[in-house]
Amino acid sequence: MINFLPLGGAGEIGANCYFLKYGNAGIVLDCGLHPQKSGIEALPDFNLIQDQPVDYVLISHAHQDHIDSLPFLVQRHPYIKVISTPQTRAIAELTLHNSISIMRGQINNDKLKIYSHDEVDLLIQSIEYRAYQEEFDLKGFSSKKNTKIKASFHDAGHILGSAGVLIECDEHRIFYTGDINTENQSLIPPAQLPKMKINTLILECTYGSTDSSSTNDWRAETERLTTSINRIISQGGSILIPVFALGKLQEMLAVISNQMTRGRIPQVDIYTGGLGRKISRIYDYNRYSVSRVDPEFELKNIPQKNLYEVDNPSDFFKNPCIVLASSGMMIEGTSSFRLAERWLNQHNSSIITVGYMDPLSPGYKVANARKGDKICLKESGELIEIKCHIENFRFSAHAKREGLIKIVEKLKPDNIILVHGEENAENWVGSSIISRFRGKRVFKPQIGEQINIE
Length: 454
Fold this sequence. Notes:
CATH class of the largest domain: Alpha Beta
Number of strands: 22
Strand order of the largest sheet: 6-5-4-3-2-1-22
Radius of gyration: 22 Å
Largest sheet: 7 strands, mixed
Strand content: 15-25%
Mean pLDDT: 92
CATH topology of the largest domain: Metallo-beta-lactamase, Chain A
Low-confidence stretches: none
């Protein structure tokens, strides 16, 4: 019997964390924070496994909603073994340190100890890493009779180091997609799925409710973006693009640079900074060790100015420029949020969104507004009239919903567990699987709802 229990990330996108139990072995898949919640509410519900064997945690990639609660799990289970790809380990060294100050500002709870930078250093040193398709053994330690399990990571095509996780419990194969992408990006090529039948598939559903006919592929979106940038720059305006420091910054920087090199966008100043720049160096360092669209391309060769060295935000509007600032959802307190407050008042400038926006985020409010609208970015803030242009693009690092169905078609699982998606997204994926494939068992668990698989 295999038990699957979501601690977070079921029926939602955030705090992704799933517990698998086989025999006497307990395996946690991912350990994230919810980006739209704060304090203890942002954590997975670790109380659900307080009486369970917890031997391993396998991390699919280093995005906040998949890794940032890892130190809290290790506090509860100090002997747990943490395993990731080498690239995820390298990025985690940056992102986990970066999350400390954020958590300190959110959590004031005697029962929850905020981890220190020294503790993060020790945690990073303890992470074991395995290359893609390198098979490794997992075994339970909570009884004299060990349960032997094999596992391996498979390139998920999402960001640098991202991986789907194949777990083989005797003859039963489980594949957890993590965040998966089935199409080319600028830097990262599509996922590489296991070449075998899977018995149980744990499938992300991020874009399950998004009609793919309303979205373009990367090449078509690049053409649209090029047209938009040229129009704003010709008007003497500047462009703010909210991006995630990990993944989206690197991909969008490559898109814009490639278009400038080809003479399709004017050579204007590009501003980046902070954590994203450090992560870009890891992308460059690993360009030959993982699959890349063009291994010769280096982000460091793109001329960039540091946005954090600009003391007066008005300087961004003296000459046309492009600013890539995190966070991607314009979360309050981040650089993109602070800059957006300035950008909204600029008649000739533009805010361009390039990816998914949580409906509760400030970025969602901006993305769904137009010139002349009035919106409130802060819960207790004043209404702001939008004077700038707002344009939305979809440079997705997740599989489209048809891509998710193709994953099912290729892996031929008997059981499909739907996670990492809002209710409508999971409903579309689930109903599509049931209508297209006979004999499949589809599960849509809620947090704390255990699924038992024979």
